[in-house]
Amino acid sequence: MKAPAAPGSDAAFEEKRLDELVTYSVALRPQMVAAALVIAAVVWDGGQPAARVAAWLAFALGVRELRAAWLLRLRAAQATPLGPRLRLATVLSFALGAGYGSVALFMPALDTAHRALLTMLLLSLGAGAISTTYTLLPAFVAFGLALTLPAAAVWALDGGWLGLGVALLVAMFLGVQVRFARQTFGMFVQAYRMGRRNDELLAELGAEREKLRQARDAAVAADLAKSRFLASASHDLRQPLQSLMLNSGALARQPLDASTRGIAVDMAAGIEALGRMLEGLLDISRLDAGSVGAELRSLRLARLLAGMCSASKGRRAPGDSGSSWSAPRRWR
Fold first, then answer.
1. pTM of model > 0.85
2. Burial status of residue 11 (CB atoms within 10 A of its CB: 0-12, 13-18, 19 or more)
């Protein structure tokens, strides 16, 4: 499985790689100390002098602490170009692997059982390093080579089928670890890309929400402006209607025959109904503008319908006598 390529020329991604390496490497101090103690115990149990074992333990832990301190300095050195910092992190990982791998110097003096146990401990330590150095594959390879190759060399130099077989197994196991580290790095790259895309989508969503909010505010402002305009223009809208009402009243006072007077009365009623509708429209505009408040009142439905029928008498077709309408008792 080929690991996805890292995002090119992405300084933020490279900084994150270094940050992950530093964070995990520093956080795993107890585990690294415990591993060094177990390795030292195996060597001491194999019959090596306690002073030499203690010296190796101090050396390995000292290298580990120096690497952690330098990694913290590398992360803080933002002004330094990123490339040299990543290369130095790789060198520090190689130094840590060499510090722990130097325990192979004791292996020629150990019996086969202790030598095999020590080899398994080193391989386990290398496998665990994947979780701390997978973001920087060269650092893991450098650490793994410095950690396990000395032990493999001791087995190979020991001669015999057993020694050569174990050395080959160590090399094969290191290759498997490198492959697994590449796959883990690929998942890291995918997770980073998904996170970046998620941030971009959130930013786009925020921009769209802002546009919708602005459009809503503009629509509300336009509707409010319309309502305020109608409320303020009510006087101008009433003037033509009042003129019609005055002319209708003047016409009703003229000597007219019965048919013409009926038309004049219906026209006056229609103008009056139009006035009420205009007042209702203006009341709604005032409500929208907030200049008046609503008041609930009962409504006589029969009177409303009777007025509508009366206003529609003048719109009948010629020859249509129409029909009278009487409201049901419960509406009156």
1. no
2. exposed
